[in-house]
Amino acid sequence: MFSFLSCKSVLRSSAEQIELSDMNADENAKYLMVRIKEIAKTGYAFGHQDATAYGIGWKNDGELYKSDVNEVTGDFPGVYGFELGHLELGHTQNLDTVNFQLMAKLIKTAYEKGGILTISWHPNNPTTKKSAWDPTSSVSHILEGGVLNPKYRGWLNRLADFLNSLRTKSGKAIPVVFRPYHEMNGSWFWWGNTSCTSAEFKQLWRETFDILTQNHGVHNLIYCYATDAVDNKSEYLNFYPGDDYVDMLGIDLYHKKTTEDYIELLNDNLGMLAEIAKEKNMPFALTEGGLDGVKVENWWTEVLDKNISNKGLSWALVWRNASLNHYFAPFVGQLSSKDFIRFKKLPHVLFLQETSEIR
């Protein structure tokens, strides 16, 4: 007990010295940053998107608290990913049919248990009203002075209301890592590299940051800039809005081609990102990744862990378990489930039990 309290006291003390891009960041946001940095000293946390919202053959109805990861290993992920797409439209559920009230409840539960929360946002195309994956140019229209700027400000108002509502039972803010407008170096989103210039993207990020922090008093966020796979540092930093607007770095790396190709991608891109993170004194993570269907039996220990464990990242998050045709974490009886248990037992791989102790 003494060692735990001593560690907690040291981390809390360290949090007082932390400076985030939001100059008025909540003390819990600063404390989360300390935890994120501390994790990387021990190993890396395992994360899963929508881990407790649904899985293979089940969906949370508000009464459940389970995850496919827990069903296989007996423990929950250390990092939980959630998605805000369609919140901007005033809908009751997100683009993956997760009710926002339920999401808030799941976020609170994960936080109380010692988990780390990260939130992405795939807003609809504001011009065409189609999905985020409609690359019709729109960024210039929602910037200050643009014809759709009032609409965008309305979107951020809804976003701020949700983020500010994330509170503990005692009323303290729940901190989250916010990862908006990710994979901007790709061409598939309306904020992507074929749909806006790097200058427009940077302005969008900065204006979004300013409106959330200054206009709406959102101070519980750690801002994470995350690209898709890149060829070099120049490509990674092409859309980077500046150190004053970013707290953490990320990259999304999926196993799409051969295993050999993915191993090379992990080593090249994470090695490069580690260098940038060191230069900027920022933590970094594999913010999305995985192999759809996990068709390689020993993928967790031989492909993923062996090629990320020595890089210094804070976590690796795999994408969601949507259906038997689209999943990234094993479930009971799945081909890689035994290897996943071996992965969980590695001393440097942190699930909820280990992550919760770093606080």
Description of the structure:
38% of the residues lie in helices and 15% in strands. It contains twelve helices and eleven strands. Strands 1, 4, 5, 6, 7, 8, 9, 10 and 11 form a nine-stranded parallel sheet that branches. Strands 2-3 form a two-stranded antiparallel sheet. Residues 1-6 have low confidence and may be disordered. α9 packs parallel to α10 and α10 (299-308) runs parallel beside α11. The protein has a single domain (2-355), classed as Alpha-Beta Barrel (TIM Barrel). The protein has 359 residues and is α/β, with parallel strands linked by helices. It is globular and about 55 Å long.
Can you give keywords for this protein?
15% strand; nine-stranded parallel beta sheet; globular; single chain; 359 residues; 12 helices; alpha/beta
Topology (SSEs and partners):
Elements: H1 2-15, H2 27-42, E1 44-49, E2 54-55, E3 58-59, H3 68-73, E4 79-83, H4 100-112, E5 116-121, H5 139-142, H6 149-165, E6 176-180, H7 198-215, E7 221-228, H8 233-237, E8 248-254, H9 259-280, E9 284-290, H10 299-308, E10 315-318, H11 337-345, E11 349-350, H12 352-355
Parallel strand pairs: 1-4, 1-10, 1-11, 4-5, 5-6, 6-7, 7-8, 8-9
Antiparallel strand pairs: 2-3
Helix pairs in contact: 1-2, 9-10, 10-11
